[in-house]
Amino acid sequence: MANPEANTATSRPFIGVEPFDAAYGAGFRADEEDQHTVECRVVEDGGHFRIHRPPDAGPPARLCFVDGVRRTEAHLTLTNPEGETITGLAGAWGAGAVLIGRDGPAEISHEEIGRAVIFSGGEQVRLSAHPGGWRWMSLSVESVEPHAASQHLQRLMRDAEAEIADRLFVEGWLVVFDGPLHYLRRSRAAPVVGYVKTHHRRTLTVEHWQKVPRLAVGERTSMFAMKDDRYACYIRVGDSGPWAGPWAGIARLEVPTSSGSGQAIRTVDRAARWLPAFASAPHRDARAPVNLAPVARLEQHLHHLFGDSRLALRAVREAVMQHNRHEETA
Q: What's the predicted TM-score (pTM) here?
């Protein structure tokens, strides 16, 4: 049987599925995000950088954690009759919340799951629904950069998270948003805390940056300004053990400047004391303690809703084969 890829220069556009599992990455490497240093201004303690140990505080009466996950299920290529190839992917995204009231157990709520085929270069390909229940939105991005489709999948996840967070803080929940607050579309005096557990770049002067690992569990640094819309500070949520690096167990908290500096200080003071109670345990989570236990539970639930990744890949392959056969006979 002839290989359909062998004559792509004279045939209709052909979609290919890369032969290795999506978990191993695509056949290219995207550049890492910009990691330039940004030295933020300390806005507390008269501009002096200090370590605070706030008084003990329990969690708020209405607390929720909002997070999302995404999964690239197949890396795709689209080759036109001239032999030019662009990249894309088939992937899934999801978001949800864990609600923790004063009474009753924690509850997973507001789950949203989506699935799409995304191509770069403005190309849009529609795959037919698979009999196993797999369906894909057809999306495109104008950029031809190899990581453009993956970035768009990330944006879909962040948009879903933001919509859920919007609804919940309007309802009066204190929202712990897993990620930087700049993903939220609204800037307001909202009951929301951004929780950032990865540190890609230095945000303070070297002198101040070197003091952050001195934090003990439940302590925080002085607050500093990140651009014009966010205040931030570092806290330690847990002890990672004697084998861990100095930054293990440290997270950055962000609060909107629209709440005012006084309210922002009160918010991070309390959060620094009650957030460690939600730190994950090493025997349950490889990202412990900085990955919070409610977030880990939510991520596991959302991944379960995605379905088996092997079945997802098989569904994409079969849908692509059907699409190519249709193009050949059209």
A: 0.87
